[in-house]
Amino acid sequence: MIPPIERIAQTGSTNADLLARLAAGEHVGEGHWLVADRQTAGRGRLGRAWGDGLGNFMGSTVVQLRAGDPLAATLALVAGVALAKTIRALAPAIDFQLKWPNDILADGAKCSGILLERSGDSVVIGIGVNLVSAPDLPDRATASLAEKGAAIDRDRFADALAVAMADALWTWRQEGVESIVRAWLPLGHPVGTPLHVSEQALDGYFDGLAPDGALRLRGADGEVMLVHAGDVELRRPVEEGK
Ligand code: ATP
């Protein structure tokens, strides 16, 4: 069963719309999706902007937190797993990695963004995916799945993502975060990938995830640090002899 998907031609931000409905006391059922053809004020984390494009996926959904649910912050991994599984299913030939916690990178270029915003016991999850086009940005490499060789119809993508999200949420609730972590690891950057965490100015190597979903970063001295939040960048390995 595909969850209910509400499609609109244009809005500022699908996350802002769902948050406004919740603030107005409207009931938004879990699994409901709001998907826009165009977003004029798409948002990323920390007040950053998300660039739209016709044919790209831009949509938001709501999780209604229940007593006994794992920590809401771990929904970042749930969304990442659902998104990565959707891309893998619809575009099996594309070589991509999940960058902790939930960015899709293809050859180091950013193909998607996920924003979680909480309002009371509701968490709005917004997902943007460059299916057809990616904006040129001065400060980072971006890519679309189309330029990586996969032509994916937006509505087909929305249907598959809605199902994958419902499935990942079920796993999160019934089996816990550890099960989501197990699903995340084979979709993510390999152990040993050099990483930089900007806020804390930490450099190290990816050493898997803790059972609660935290990033394990192994420093040059072999000590493992746990990172619960932060901007993570993939560093290219230093080439020998250079
Ligand atoms: P990251 O860990 O990649 O730095 P982030 O949390 O900073 O992620 P997001 O909230 O996922 O970023 O997305 C916002 C950022 O993504 C913007 O600051 C911009 O650099 C970049 N961006 C904006 N629009 C797009 C797009 N359509 N495709 C790829 N990157 C984008």
From TrEMBL:
Q: Name one Pfam family in it.
A: BPL_LplA_LipB
Task: Mention any one GO cellular component term assigned to this protein in its UniProt record.
Answer: cytoplasm
Q: Which keywords fit this entry according to its UniProt record?
A: Ligase
Q: Name one GO molecular function term.
A: biotin--[biotin carboxyl-carrier protein] ligase activity
InterPro entries in alphabetical order: aa-tRNA-synth_II/BPL/LPL (IPR045864), Biotin_CoA_COase_ligase (IPR004408), BPL_LPL_catalytic (IPR004143), Transcriptional_repressor_C (IPR008988)
List the CDD domains hit by this protein, alphabetically: BPL
Q: What is the protein name given in its UniProt record?
A: BirA family transcriptional regulator, biotin operon repressor / biotin-[acetyl-CoA-carboxylase] ligase
Which species is this record about?
Answer: Sphingopyxis terrae subsp. ummariensis
* Source lineage: Bacteria, Pseudomonadati, Pseudomonadota, Alphaproteobacteria, Sphingomonadales
